[in-house]
Each structure stands twice: as structure tokens, then as C-alpha cells.
Amino acid sequence: MLEIREIYKDYEGQPLLRGLTFHLGPRETICLLGPSGSGKSTLLRLIAGLETPERGRILWDGRDLASTPAHMRDFGLVFQDYALFPHLNVFENVAFGLRMRGIAQTAVDARVREVMAIVDLPGFEARGVTELSGGEQQRVALARALAPRPRLLMFDEPLGALDRALREGLLDQLRVILHQTGIPAIYVTHDQEEAFSIADRVLLLHDGVIVRQGRPADVWADPRSAWAAEFLGLGNVVPARLLKPASRVETPYGIFAFRCPHKHRPGDEISVLLRPADSKKAGVIRARVRDSVFRQDGFRVTLDGGLHFDLVRSVEIGSRISIPVAVECLGPHPEEHG
Prior knowledge:
The chain is an alpha+beta fold. It folds into 2 domains: 222 residues, Rossmann fold (3-Layer(aba) Sandwich); 106 residues, no CATH class. Helices cover 25% and strands 36% of the residues. The longest helix is centred in the middle third of the chain and has 18 residues. The chain is elongated, with a radius of gyration of 24 Å.
């Protein structure tokens, strides 16, 4: 399938992508997740053939695509702004790619009806695209991408312009469509909820490199770096110093029992992640409550010192509470190990 090998790309004279390497398997959906400006959309344009890398290779089934123009790659792209033709009705928009390939009219008619049913818009063919809601326009854009039976689908922040309810509904529908069609897909977003909902595998992109990849549950359980933990909002990332014996670690919030798979020595400066824990063996944070804010699934509680925890029950501001925490190693502290 798709292979990305050591891709480098500069933007305005500065490195944007720095040696990216990954693969996409049959029927797999991967998500490139990262902040704005991390190079996610540029990578899609490179794969689509709309831009050229400084160096590196993009291969499909072992064949280098460098000499294959964009319109010959059989890849479908779905954008945040839909990119529909406002002067054409829904049918003509969906049929556009088929017509460009010289497909017979009867086959075009049949395929348009088929993909309109897939995206749950049967009977919309004669409507003007400007008459549709944002969610309906995005489904038309998806139908247009599906119509030529692409061997790869790519989504560039496709739900970014929609409100939360529409996003959730379309995300569920998109996941079902990808499973039904079996088309491999690359999904780009800065929204971790979208990424973890739709991806078979998540790739975290930061400063032009992939800092963590794996199944959503594995990435969530083991971020492996301070940046990944902070970006995903997994808990409190704090500096720490390994004590002797190496089963204890000192933080600004106390000394905790500690187990780490990395090879550290007493005195090493590291970063650790503090998460709420149920275990009786967990360490305990004791502090005064500075703030408590209601959220749909509980309360975000901020303690003196800036630590924050998501709790099920409300606590009184100004009270002192104890929170059991698990301490997880995230590797060398970045201030000490640039």
C-alpha cells in the first residue's frame, strides 16, 4: 500500500517536515494529529502530488509516485471548506471526476445514485449546493471523492467548519462508510476527539517529526513524552528528580514511589505525568482547592501550585483535599536534555 520514506519539506526556508516515515495498510484509517503548523496538511499535498518534497520517497505498492501527476494517482481529497463548484448542482458536482475520465453517461448516473445513497443523501441530486447545510455540503464533497472509486482517501480537517452536534454525527457516519467501502484513509486533524474516534492508528506530529504512533488506546495509556502528554491533556506534566534508591522520585508536590522502564540514574532530571489513580498503592497529593469548574462529565479542579484534576464530584473552593495519583515517567526533562 502507501509508504512514506524519509520525507523532508521546507517552508519559507525553514524545515517543516523532517524525515517522516510511516506506512498505511489495506483498509486502514490513520490519523495525523497535531497542532496547527505542524505540517499535516502539507504532507497530504505531497502525497496527493500537489507539492514536491525536498527529498524522500512516496510509494504505492512499492512504486515510486514521483513521476505520477496528481490526476493520475487515483487519490481522493476532502477539504474543510468543501471545495464544491457553486454553479453546479449536486449531481454535477458528484459526477465531475467521473466525467473527467470519460465514463459513459449511464455509468455516471448509476454511480452518482450509488454514492448519494452511501452518504445518505438520495434524492438531493437536483439541488443547488448553496442551498444545502454545511453538513450536507460536506457529505456531497465526500460523495464526489468516493465516486471515482479512489484507492486512497485523504481528509484535511473535514469537520472543522461544523458545529459540535454535526461533527459528531458526520464522524460516526464517516467511520461506517470507511469500514463499508474498505478504502484506506489518511485523516488530518488537530482535534484529538476526532482522531481517537475514527483512527485505527494515530500518529502524533510535532515539529516535523512523528513523536508517537499506535492504536488510540495505546497512545492514550502511554504517551511516552512530555509534549504528547500535554498536547493530549492527559494530566499534569511536572519536572522531577530521581532519588536513591531509584524506586522514588522527588517532585515540587512531594516524593512518590516510582517504577520506570527507562534506564535512569539517581539524580537524573526527568518529566513525570501525574494522573488520578484508584490504587491503594498510589501516591497522594494534598492541597487547597483554588478553583472548581463544572464540565459535562464532572468538574475540573485546580489546586494551589497549578495542578488540575478532573473529578466526578464537586469540591468546595478553599477546602483542602487529598487526591491519589499515579506517577508515570515521560523521559528526560526537556529543560535539562534539549
